[in-house]
Amino acid sequence: MLASCAEDLGDGSVHLTSRGNIQLRGLSRDTGELAARLSAAGLLPAPAHERVRNYLASPLSGLAGGLVDVRATVFELDRAVCARPELAALPGRFLFALDDGRGDVSGEDADVCWRALDSSTGAVLLAGRDTGERVPFTGAVDALVRKALWFLEVRGSAWRVRELPALPAGERPPSSPGVPIGPFTRDDGLAGVVGAPVLGQLAAADLRALGEIVVTPWRSVVVPRGLDAPGLVTDPDAPGLGISACIGRPGCAKSRADVRADARAMMPRVPAGVRMHFSGCERRCGRPHEPHVDMLAGSEGYQKGTA
After folding, report:
1. Which CATH class, in words, describes the domain spanning 53-163?
2. Helix ranges, the chain (H)
3. Cα torsion 102, 104, 109, 114: sign
4. Among the listed residues 135, 133, 234, 231, the one whose alpha carbon sits nearest the alpha carbon of residue 183
5. Residue 114 three-state SS
6. What is the CB neighbour count within 10 angstroms for residue 46?
7. Is the pTM of this model over 0.85?
8. 120: burial class by Cβ within 10 Å (0-12, 13-18, 19+)?
9. What would the pLDDT profile of 231-284 be if each residue is shown by its tens digit?
C-alpha cells in the first residue's frame, strides 16, 4: 500500500526518518485519496490520536538478543494510548519507547521509556534518564501511559519532557549504538540482514520487493528473513554510510542548497565510520542524536562544525 501511494500520489519513494517513521513526500495539497487508501489498509486506526502514535522499540527484539520480546507490547501500548481520549492532546513530538534491555532505543531520548533490566523487570526513563522507578514487564504499558498523563498535567508550554524546568530523573543509563548494518544470525538459527537506503530514501519498487521489514530510528531497516535486500546498502564498510541529510532543495523552500546532491557527491570520500549530517538551514531537520559532523548550508558554501 505504501509503495503504491508513493508511486501514484508522491515522488515515487518512501523516506525513512530519525523517529522510525516512513514518510511520503511530494504529495499534492489534496490528501483525501491518500487518507482513504491508508484507512482502507488499516494504517489510520485512530485518527484522533494519529499524531501521537509515536513508538520506538528495539528493532531486533524477538529476533536476535535482548532480555525480553517487546513486539507484542508495542501493540498493547498503542491500544492503551488510543483508549485514552486525553492523550490525543500530547504534542506531536512526544515519543514512547520500549527497550528490550540492549540499550538501543533508550538512548534515543524518548520522552517516556521502559527499559528491561532482566527478563521480568525494567526501569522507567524520562528523556533518557533513569527515574529510579522499577516496573514489571507486565506493567510497562501502564507505567508509560501514567507518565504521559503526568506530562500533560505539568507540561505548561513544553513540547518534550526534556524541556520541563525540573525533570524528576537521574543519570542516563549506558546505551548501545543502533543495530549494525550487515547480516545477522537470528536466535532460531536463520539469517536476516540490516540495510540502509542511501540518504534514507527507498524506491517504491524496492520497498515492495522487500516485503516484511522493521523500520529503525537510524534510517535503516531490518529484513528479518533472508539476505536479499534490494535498494539497501548492507556492507558495513561502504563509504558514506554514515551520511544523512534533510530534504533540501527543491523539496523545502527554506533550504539554501540541494543538500542531498551535495551529500551524494561527498559520499565516496567519507569513511563508513564517520557520522555526518547535511542541513539546508538552521533548523537542521533530521539530524542524528549521536555526535556527528555538522554541515550547514550557507550563502557561500557549507559551514562545517561538530554536534
Report:
1. alpha beta
2. 2-9, 32-40, 71-82, 140-154, 204-210, 259-266
3. negative
4. 234
5. strand
6. 14
7. yes
8. exposed
9. 999 999 999 999 999 999 988 989 999 999 999 999 999 998 899 999 999 999
Written as nine digits, the cell of 145 is 501511559
Q: Tell me which residue has cell 544523512.
A: 244
Tens of pLDDT, residue by residue over 25-72, are: 999 878 899 999 999 999 999 999 999 999 999 999 999 999 999 999
The CATH classification number of 243-306 equals 3.30.413.10
The owner of cell 562545517 is 304
Number of residues assigned to the chain: 307
Residue 271 and residue 36: Cα distance in Å, rounded? 44
Distance CA 35, CA 25 (A): 14
Give the phi and the psi of residue 113 in degrees, each rounded to 5. -145, 140
128: left (phi over 0), alpha (psi -120 to 50) or beta: left
Distance from the Cα of residue 145 to its chain's centroid: 20
Q: Which amino acid is at 7?
A: E
Cβ count within 10 A of residue 72: 10
In the chain, where the domains are located? 2-44+179-223, 53-163, 243-306
Could you tell me the CATH superfamily of domain 2-44+179-223? Sulfite Reductase Hemoprotein;Domain 2 (3.90.480.10)
What end-to-end distance do the CA atoms of the chain give, in Å? 37
If you average pLDDT over residues 277-300, what whole number do you get?
91
- In the block, residue with C-alpha cell 522507567: 124
- Predicted local distance difference test score (pLDDT) of residue 201: 95
